[in-house]
Amino acid sequence: MTAADLRFAFRVLAKNRGFTLTVVCTLALGIGAATTIFSVVNTVLLQPLGYREPDRLVLIRERIRKITPDLLAVPAPDILEFRKETAAFEDVAGWIGRPSDISGDSSRPARVDVTRVTANIFPMLGRTAALGRTFTAAEDAQRQPVAVLSDVLWRTRYAADPNILGRKILLDRAPYTVIGVMAPEFTFPPRGLGGSDGVWIPMAFTAEELTSYGDMFNYSALARLRPGVTLETAAAVLSSTSARILAQYPAEVRSQLALESVPLPLSEQVVRGSRTLVLLLGSAVLLLLLIACANVASLLLSRAAAREREFAIRAAIGAGRSRIASQWLAESLWLSLAAALLGLFAAWYGTDGLARLNLASIPRLAEVHMDARVLIVSLALSTVTALIFGTVPAWFTARADLTAGLKDGGRGSSGPGRHRVRSVLVTAEVALALMLLAGAGLLFRSFLIARAADPGIRAENVLSFRLSLPASAYPKPADNERFSLDLDRRLHALPGVLAAG
Q1: pLDDT tens sequence across 164-196
Q2: What does each C-alpha distance from 166 to 49, 103, 131, 132, 135 come to in angstroms?
Q3: φ, ψ for residue 105 (rounded to 5)?
Q4: Residue-wise pLDDT tens digits, 312-364
Q5: What is the CA radius of gyration of the chain?
Q6: CB atoms within 10 A of CB 373
Q7: How many CB atoms lie within 10 A of CB 21?
Q8: CB burial class (10 A; 0-12, 13-18, 19+) of residue 378?
């Protein structure tokens, strides 16, 4: 393919604006969709988590097979036991999340995610505060009421006030002092493990928590492997740790249980619930791109029949078959390049729209963006599509009897072979489209079934809400009961309320 081929191909396509626009838009749809979904695949499945050396971060879960085969969170004392295994782990941190009410300023009280974390969680992740600082081990051990805000909360509730440091806030009516604000991209725990864009406060284990062996499997443990330590080595080390932990259980249950501690790669745990969904989306858009390529190849075959006389004349004045075939490839290259530019423009807005959706079912969706890897893949897709739909007409034109195209009424290369290929392309288009349609139909049918399912109650005109009472104001069960009875009485008194409970 020469520069002259490219110049001539550009002039030919410019003269046939309707055909060119149709092909470019068809390909741009497939390339844009494929680029958008690959951006999701790239961010969710291929890019490392935004922490320091994330491949050495592991979650530690526990399992008691006689109770359940599922992996469980861990009791608080077990986190301290895991910390003792310094041969396998550089450090071990813990966290537990809860929703809380935030107040103490001119804004209305709001619900936020509050995550209690051990002070070493931030150094372990290799992250520091963008404004101020994170809390120290001494503040954690002394149960100091300090708080670190997420960038989202700082901007939405406090209008990115640079003087936020030192301000008092109320979490479940308990006062805390703001000492830091994290960077916009920081989220912990990561999406896929709950996610938190609220407030981080010291873990500050209580005496009750530290003695609850075999109870309150509510805490998460995060460990950093030492360099060179494999997952298998860590599992072997935790086997002895499990035996030591089990020895702390009450005697009446100790002999009846077998406790296992299991290290799990953090990155895999983040995406394990969404990997299949993301790959299905990727497969669907690849089918869409193949349909677009088959459609364009069919259009080019039809156009080749109309250009038989043109190619016959070029052959008669000395153009070889390879030169004619390269002409088709040059036109295909221009079409795919234009489609790639238009597809990238669509993908830019598509990725931005997906990031704004921030669906809970796909972790890290808010981080989706187009980077160099996505651009390279998009360019590769454009090149491959050009070869796919450009090779078919080029091959048939090169094999055809071009001299027959000069004869009056000659059929040239529009013989049975071309008709067979066009039929194959149309059949492939229909088959791929039916696959996509069947998948979409099954998803829509599942949606309709889910909506039509009888929940066993009449939900018309029924409202529900959830609340939790701050322990500082309602420390005893009797206080909670009193509040509930009073709330029930006041709800019954509201106009229009027929029943409450």
Answers
A1: 999 999 998 889 999 999 998 898 998 778 777
A2: 31, 15, 12, 10, 13
A3: -140, -170
A4: 666 666 656 666 667 777 878 888 888 888 888 888 888 888 777 766 667 77
A5: 32
A6: 14
A7: 12
A8: buried
